Amino acid sequence: MFKTLFRILILVVIAVIGINIYIDFKASDFLFDSTSTVPKNTYALVLGTSKYVIGGGKNPYFEARIKAAEALVSAGKVDSIIVSGDNREANYNEPKRMRQALIELGVSENIIIEDKSGLKTDFSIRSYINNYPNKSVTIVTQRFHNQRAVYTARKKGINAVGLNAEDIGFMRDKRTHAREWLAKVKAFVL
Question: How far apart are CA 89 and CA 65, in angstroms?
Fold first, then answer.
């Protein structure tokens, strides 16, 4: 019995690793680390995250995504920015906070669109498909997240590329990176 369970566990681990490698490979040609190399698109889709971490400090993921989105606008690589995130509670509104942060960096409020249905990455992508006729988009998030986001969008027929915002590194945030490994399995299956 123990040997059977152990073998099943080994197969599951191999499957998770294999799926992650596959998704990373499928997305790799469409991910960019610099605004100078990313193709021009009408829209950027900035995936939401909290502005603050538990304990009240600034969230480095949020800060990096906002800076990357502003850099796209400054480089003339997008015409409009869709900020997509969680808006489930009255006092928690990721799109509104992203909009405010972009305006503080000098981005015109006229080109920022709030998408309040982005509770999950897949919801943000579905909302883009349903609400925007343009089937091309530049997704803005960290590389480890962009791999899944771009893979998912392309799987759904969107000509998506990703601009990778600065990452804080695996060692500083193991939980988020581990969760992303499992989310990639879900993206592959669904």
Answer: 22
